[in-house]
Design goal:
- By secondary structure, the protein is mostly beta strands.
- Helix content is 0%, strand content 48%.
- The protein has no helices and 46 strands.
- A five-stranded mixed beta sheet has the order 39-46-45-41-42, with no helix packed on it. The protein has a four-stranded mixed beta sheet with strand order 16-22-21-19, with no helix packed on it.
- Strand 12 and strand 13 form a beta hairpin.
Length: 490
């Protein structure tokens, strides 16, 4: 039996499964001794054994070369194994709300935590404000700086809860605007509308004001961080009618015109109203008849029946021509069975009737051969087809000669008031003179068909017999002279 007992100190292993334990013999101590911690299998001169794992060791100490050894046991302890579990929550569209929570066990508290492979540690076990991505290696470290690592990295995923709603399609009247109020997440901050201006005010505004000219489908792309949504809305536009009162037109004097109105660009039925309505029949129809009293505008008012209260007006000018100035000439005298020229004015087309005595009833200046007095009527047409009638009476006499009455009675009864000669076949009169029975000149003229009214120097001539004389040139150029008497009757 050795003359001593064994005593020793130890240090436990810092980390479970490690070899940082140690044993140091404190008795006996000296150069004469050797030591073993494996029940004498191996021996060393140093009393200190390092880098030992946890476990129970059988201690031996003896004098060098002596087979007898003192015996003792000592146990090196170790912490329980570090454990690590992870949980995570996804991030929202803002990409900054993800979390990773680490739960540690075993080892020696307090713990520190790392999600970047130990580059950085923090005392708290919750990592917040994380964006989408893969994090790792995930590690914890205890008070002994023992570290354990999760088998797999932790992923932060995206929880896309974004929504966007523009509401149902709507209908407006032309010229109106629509204010849009999209329903979306409070943090949605980027907006892009199409189509853009001029069909809306700002194409990057959330609450845009739409101003379509026609039915338009609008699209909105909205973004919130990593998330985006697309929605669309149709704005139906009820059209503003485009009235058309028809083409300006010209009509004949005191006639009528057709009004051919209409309206296009419609979104439903419309009402029509013509003014001045007193001249238009029917005045509430697009197609009507108008009898204007003069040249004037007529107005077609179109109002919608589809709730927009549109009232639009167009006009048409109806130009009334002045009456055709048809003129068949003054009543005249013609020679019996001799060509006599008629003449009409006031237009571009002429039709005479009766046509039988005429060489051309469609001529402006036809020739008539008459055996009796005749009344002619002529229809005169202008350049747009308007027409009017006029007439001329042709008295037929034998000729060439002057036809002279033998009496006249200027008494105011409207019959035989003047004494005049009727030239038949006479182209000009040199003179027509009347004398009293004493040879005094009572009246003289060269004017065609001008006669004596029975007055002399402003006073009434006495009833009685007077002498007349007339001289002229016939249509053949020969002189014609005639004399006679006439009785003035009071």
């Amino acid at each position: 039996m050795p003359p001593f007992t064994i005593s020793a100190t130890k240090t436990d292993v810092l980390c479970n499964g490690g070899n940082t334990g140690s044993i140091t013999f404190t008795n006996p101590i000296g150069a004469l001794y050797e030591y073993s911690i494996d029940a004498g299998v191996t021996w060393q001169a140093s009393p200190t054994f390092l880098n030992l794992p946890a476990g129970t060791y059988n201690l031996r100490a003896r004098e060098t070369g002596n087979l007898c050894a003192a015996v003792a046991t000592i146990t090196i302890g170790e912490p329980t194994a570090l454990t690590l579990s992870t949980t995570s929550t996804p991030t929202n569209c803002a990409n900054n709300t993800g979390t990773i929570t680490l739960t540690a066990g075993g080892g020696v508290p307090a713990y520190q935590y790392s999600i970047d492979g130990g580059v950085t540690y923090q005392p708290g076990n919750v990592f917040s404000s994380l964006s989408v991505g893969s994090y790792g290696p995930i590690q914890i470290k205890d008070a002994n700086n023992c570290v354990t690592t999760a088998v797999a990295p932790v992923a932060i995923t995206l929880l896309d809860t974004m929504h966007l709603d523009l509401g149902p399609d709507s209908t407006i009247c032309f010229g109106q605007k629509v204010a849009m109020f999209p329903v979306t997440n409070a943090l949605t901050d980027t907006f892009k509308w199409t189509p853009g201006r001029p069909l809306l005010d700002y194409d990057t505004a959330k609450n845009a004001i739409l101003n379509p000219n026609d039915t338009t489908k609008y699209y909105l792309v909205a973004k919130w961080g990593l998330c985006s949504r697309l929605d669309s809305i149709i704005i139906n536009v009820k059209h503003k009618p485009v009235p058309d009162a028809g083409k300006d037109t010209t009509i004949c004097y005191k006639t009528f015109a057709y009004l051919n109105g209409n309206a296009t660009n419609l979104s439903g039925t419309v009402n029509y109203l013509w003014t001045d309505s007193t001249m238009v029949v029917p005045h509430r129809s697009p197609n009507a008849i108008v009898r204007p009293d003069t040249t004037r505008y007529f107005y077609l008012t179109v109002t919608d029946n589809y709730g927009c209260n549109f009232t639009v007006v167009d006009s048409v000018l109806i130009t009334m021509r002045d009456p055709v100035p048809a003129f068949a000439g003054n009543d005249t005298i013609a020679m019996y069975n001799k060509p006599h020229q008629l003449e009409s004015t006031g237009g571009v087309g002429f039709v005479w009737s009766p046509s039988a005595p005429l060489n051309n009833p469609f001529a402006r200046k036809p020739l008539a051969v008459l055996s009796h007095d005749q009344y002619f009527e002529v229809k005169v047409t202008d350049n747009i087809g308007c027409f009017a009638y006029d007439g001329v009476f042709v008295k037929v006499y034998e000729g060439p000669m002057y036809h002279v009455p033998n009496a006249f009675s200027p008494n105011g009864d409207g019959l035989n008031e003047t004494f005049k000669v009727i030239p038949s076949g006479i182209q000009s009169t040199e003179y027509f003179r009347v004398f009293d029975r004493y040879g005094a000149l009572m009246f003289e003229t060269r004017e065609w068909l001008k006669g004596w009214d029975g007055n002399f120097k402003g006073k009434k001539a006495l009833a009685g017999t007077y002498v007349w004389m007339v001289k002229g040139i016939d249509v053949n150029g020969a002189d014609v002279e005639q004399t006679g008497t006439v009785i003035l009757i009071r």
